Amino acid sequence: HAHHDLPILLAGRGGGTIRSGQSLEFKQETPLCNLFVSLADRMGAKVDQFGDSTGRLEAIAQTTESGPRQFPPDQNLIWKKKA
Description:
This protein is about 10% helix and about 20% strand. With about 80 residues, the chain is α+β, with helices and mostly antiparallel strands. It has one domain (about 15-80). β2 (about 65) and β3 form a beta hairpin. The longest helix is centred in the middle third of the chain and has 10 residues, at about 35-40. The chain is globular, with a radius of gyration of 13 Å.
């Protein structure tokens, strides 16, 4: 079974830590486990790696511990649309 180009829907805002109202498309080689690592961060479970992850998806983050986040370009993000 192919596991590429899977549509993933996140419901909720992760207690205000996930930026909502957007549609994102990442490079095909971006592992889904990068999302899982990013979601673990939002739950307070700091992990360096999960499965085949290569990093975090900064494009979904709303805030940091010190407040609103300024976002550098996510290296894996190729398309973004505000809803």
